[in-house]
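Retro notes (design track)

What went well: tokenization of the new backbones is finally stable.
What didn't: we kept losing track of which sequence belonged to which structure.
Fix going forward: every design gets posted as structure first, then sequence, in one message. First example under the new rule, 445 residues:
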């Protein structure tokens, strides 16, 4: 039996792609292994969104050299967003001779043929096509080997049309392509029937869903239809672009218990001047009113965001505007990133790049403000009982289990006799204390 090991970097879209690669590999007769040293085939699924992610994938690919020396028949393949960039594909070609093949993000469905060719050619192969050549039609019916049996990822669309000036995604994932609603509904129906409790709908900008399909339905309508699928499960989605997030979508969330009580809405910057240069196409006021509408329609909703610190030209005043938005909106969570230059994007060649010292100093201030806000917000849960899906052992403490509420809150509780049987089930948890990143509670039996 041949064994496959897959290493995945980056976002949930990459996680979902790896589940498909594994699904196809299992059908080809491979067996999954969690030990690289044991593998006959290693796939590294890379991310390109920040330099750090690329460097990590490259350095870990570098470490595979020793495994290949011990096992010369091992095949190593690199895929994902990083190698969709010409200069990174060349890096692999020139500096990583022990990588046998690379394949692009729009070649995923051809994985079985790629493997056949790699094995018969017996020479290094580079299967990367630009998105202009291949429009990247969506192939349905690819087998998926899901990483969990209670929580599933479902891509509803691929690519992005927005070209935010800092971002590499539109270049490495191509233009927006939506899956047909009936295919998505069928997949969700099947997952619900199998007992999945949490279904995450994925897209770079889910609010553009359907715009590329003739007579297509919009995202709010898709969500409405998915809520009608029978079963006890929570529907989640990621990510919403503020310029396209509609009141209709928020209304659908408010009316349907199946949808999470959480909205991830990336702000990126609180300064109108910077938002404009980022090509985000909304203002801080528009963003603020959207969050106000959410809070009014869905009491108790949790709102999280992404913020980039140190975008080119960001002044102290611009940064103060970002902190001000954080204070006004009081996000439940902020994923903050230091701006990272991405080759080929407009922002990479903008003047006034911000020094590392300034970026670091601003990031420190942002984090301490958010920790304060988050702790205060989380404390409001103490004494309340909330429903949550038990996910498994806590990553930080093996004596605890972790659970996730509909608000997206991470809750830990002590393991007790029989508690492990709760994994994959919904439970009611009474919150006893709160920290910035999580809540602690007791399961109400
Ligand atoms: N499509 C999603 C985000 C995809 S990338 C959206 O529009 O929200 C995830 C996050 O990475 C972005 O929200 C942004 O905050 C961050 N990011 C993207 N490019 C970046 C860069 N060049 N430097 C730092 N952070 C970046
Ligand atoms: Fe990148 Fe902007 Fe597209 Fe998100 S919307 S993937 S940040 S270009």
């Amino acid at each position: 039996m041949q064994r496959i090991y897959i290493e995945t970097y980056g976002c949930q879209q990459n996680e979902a792609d790896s589940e498909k690669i594994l699904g196809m590999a299992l059908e080809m007769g491979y067996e999954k292994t969690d030990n690289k040293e044991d593998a006959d085939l290693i796939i590294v699924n890379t991310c390109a969104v920040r330099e750090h992610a690329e460097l990590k994938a490259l350095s870990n690919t570098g470490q595979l050299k020793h495994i290949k020396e011990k096992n010369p028949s091992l095949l190593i393949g690199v895929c994902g967003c990083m190698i969709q960039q010409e200069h990174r594909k060349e890096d692999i070609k020139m500096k990583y001779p022990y990588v046998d093949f690379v394949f692009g993000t729009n070649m995923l469905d051809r994985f079985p043929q790629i493997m056949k060719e790699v094995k018969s050619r017996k020479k290094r192969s580079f299967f990367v096509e630009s998105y202009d050549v291949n429009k990247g039609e969506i192939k349905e019916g690819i087998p998926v080997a899901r990483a969990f049996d209670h929580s599933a990822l479902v891509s509803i669309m691929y690519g992005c049309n927005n070209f935010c000036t800092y971002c590499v995604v539109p270049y490495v994932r191509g233009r927006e392509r939506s899956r047909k609603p009936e295919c998505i509904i069928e997949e969700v129906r099947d997952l619900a029937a199998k007992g999945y409790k949490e279904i995450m709908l994925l897209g770079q900008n889910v609010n553009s869903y359907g715009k590329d399909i003739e007579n297509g339905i919009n995202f709010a309508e898709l969500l409405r239809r998915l809520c009608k699928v029978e079963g006890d499960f929570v529907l989640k989605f990621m990510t919403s672009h503020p310029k396209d997030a509609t009141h209709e979508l928020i209304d659908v969330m408010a009316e349907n218990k199946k949808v999470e009580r959480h909205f991830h809405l990336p702000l990126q910057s609180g300064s109108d001047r910077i938002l404009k240069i980022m090509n985000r196409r909304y203002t801080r006021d528009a963003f603020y009113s959207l969050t106000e509408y959410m809070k009014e329609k869905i009491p108790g909703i949790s709102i999280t965001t992404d913020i980039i610190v140190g975008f080119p030209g960001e002044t102290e005043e611009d940064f103060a505007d970002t902190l001000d938005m954080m204070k006004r909106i009081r996000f439940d969570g902020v994923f903050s990133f230091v701006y990272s230059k991405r080759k080929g994007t407009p922002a990479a060649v903008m003047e006034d790049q911000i020094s590392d010292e300034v970026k670091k100093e601003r990031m420190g201030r942002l984090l301490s403000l958010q920790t304060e806000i988050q702790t205060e917000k989380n404390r409001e849960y103490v004494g309340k009982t909330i429903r949550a899906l038990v996910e498994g052992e806590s990553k930080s403490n093996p004596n605890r289990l972790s659970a996730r509420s509909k608000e997206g809150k991470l809750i830990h509780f002590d393991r007790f006799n029989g508690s492990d049987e709760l994994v994959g089930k919904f439970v009611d948890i009474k919150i006893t204390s709160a920290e910035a990143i999580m809540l602690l509670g007791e399961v109400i039996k």
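Added context from the reviewer: The chain has 13 helices and 19 strands.
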